[in-house]
Amino acid sequence: MIVELAGEVRRGRAIDARDATVDPSGLFEAIRTGEPPVRSSLPPGPVHEHVGLVELGMHLPLRTALAAAARSRGVLTEFDDAIARLESDIAAIDPGSVDLGPARERAAAAGQDLAALRERVATLRGHVDADRTAGRPTDAATADLREAVTALSEAETDAIAAEQALAAAERGARAARDDRDRRLGLADRRDNLVRRARTVLAERTYPRFRRALDALPVEASAGEEPADFEGAVTAAALAVTRIAALRAPVVVVDGPFSRPVEARAALDAPVVLV
Amino acid sequence: MLLVVTFSTEARQSLRNSCRAHPAVAIRRLGRAALCRETELGALLALRLRAKHPDDVVIELTRPLNEFADVPERVREAARAFEDREFPSTSYANFASGTAHPGAEDLRDVDL
Q1: According to the per-residue pLDDT averaged within each range, which of A70-74, A135-139, A168-172 is highest?
Q2: C-alpha pair distances (Å), A20 with each of A1, A9, A15, A16, B29
Q3: Nearest chain B CA: its distance from A168 CA (Å)
Q4: By C-alpha distance, which of B16, B17, B20, B42 is closest to B31?
């Protein structure tokens, strides 16, 4: 990695940044994105997300990190073929997008026009009745009424057409939804297998993790399985770093190493001490 | 009620989060679907979910089925009689044939 700190360009796989004022998370992000103060760095893999920044108070999902470490070394599981098949089945589904909003809006507008016209017809009928009762000529009012009734009839036809168009669009959308349904089912099966793969990877990597913990200048007790781990989260993170194949550097804040080369050797990964 | 149905893992998770945040709105949580109160808040949450996941959210307006108002007697009768049939393994087709009960073909394309 090449990084600029305290006005100085530093390069290598074991960098000491303890003399510079560095924001550890900022440096971690810069390593991940390749942005300043990092000038160049190998891109991080998935395990880096979990152990790329080792500091007090950090969160580490141990099983997930162990599985990621195993994957970084190319470890396979009996679930991988099935997972790959499901991924390709999922990718093959192309449901198509159906926007029913405009059809719904047209149907609603047609319905509203209808309601307004019905009201108008009722009102005009009232005018005709009023004129008749009062003995006034009804011609004008009747003409108005006739016009309104015609408009109403047209609006009823339009409303039916809009409703039918909406219903047809709904039916059309159903096929796309069937595809999405199928895809959801496949995604659930895939996620299930990914979880099972993660579990076996974590279990099978655990002995290696336990040996790594023993080799590091940290206090922790590994036990037989991930649930048994007792100790500082940072200790676990350092052990995961040691067993993973990391390309991008790990930022270690206030770690148990006095010199960067010592950290680099112990962690078997590029490292920046902060 | 509003029935909200999701069609992707992301939409399903958003629905779960929404129901958790507004427990008074979600009457029945059904995993990838939920029955919600037919209120403006219910509609807001449903529409917002659909805006967030276009194509992966369906919103229906439902009402309880009143079989006495909404369903013809011949259908109600057939349902009762079929449930009371002598042999559980009898299919509806076999059960109805030779009786006055309507066959499935007679009912299939008739809207309620």
Answers
A1: A70-74
A2: 17, 12, 11, 9, 53
A3: 16
A4: B16
Nearest-Cα residue of chain A relative to residue B53: A97
- Out of B8, B55, B58, closest to residue A184 by CB: B8
Per-residue b or e along A74-99, where b marks 16 or more CB atoms closer than 10 Å to that residue's CB: eeebebeeebeebeeebeeeebeebe
Torsions phi, psi for A54 (to 5 deg): -105, 110
Q: How confident is the model at residue A272 (pLDDT cuts 50, 70, 90)?
A: very high
pLDDT tens digits along B47-103: 999 999 999 999 999 999 999 999 999 999 999 999 999 999 999 999 999 999 999
**Residue range A166-187, pLDDT digits in tens:** 999 999 899 899 999 999 999 9
Q: pTM of this prediction?
A: 0.79
Is-cis flag, bond preceding A37, omega within 30? yes
> In this structure, are residues A90 and A185 in contact, taking their beta carbons and an 8 Å threshold?
no
| ipTM field | 0.84
Query: Which has the closest alpha carbon to A272: A238, A243, A249?
Result: A249
Q: What are the angstrom distances between the C-alpha of A48 and each of A163, A176, A220, B14?
A: 55, 38, 22, 28
Quick check: B9 pLDDT over 90? Answer: yes
What does the DSSP 8-state code read for residue A227? G
Chosen from B8, B12, B16, B60 to mutate, greatest number of chain A CBs within 10 A: B8
3-class SS of residue B25 = coil
